[in-house]
Amino acid sequence: MSKFITVQSRIGVSEYISKSNDNIHIKSNKINNLSDVNKSKIIESLILNIPLSPVYLYEYEYNKFELIEDYGILDVIKSFTSNEFNLKGLGFFEEFNGLNFSDLPRDTQKYILGKYMPMIILMIDDEVSSDKEELRELAFKYIGGFNND
What we know:
alpha/beta, elongated
């Protein structure tokens, strides 16, 4: 007897940064806790084609989502493609250190924008009505809470 319905999906980097994303409610400020070196490592992992951790979303009404956990990835990608920080401390692509998104070679920019981020969307089974808020809080605690302690 499952109370949650999970859907695996993905969103393109270019799609995410080009949309206003009014349908994704983000309550995260994890990017503020990341150094430029750590943010740069996330970008380097995209370029190296290392799979990203999935973004977890909770669908609270049709096509409206609340972010449960993204490990800061969404904010890092958006801030980098907006030229808000320069790459720093890269190990494999040392030649990119000191560059912002606009300074990268055009093919590297296109490669980053062409990447996809895995998503897992949690929805509460419509047959469950009395404990929806409790289940929502449980999902946030188990998925996002362990990383926020």
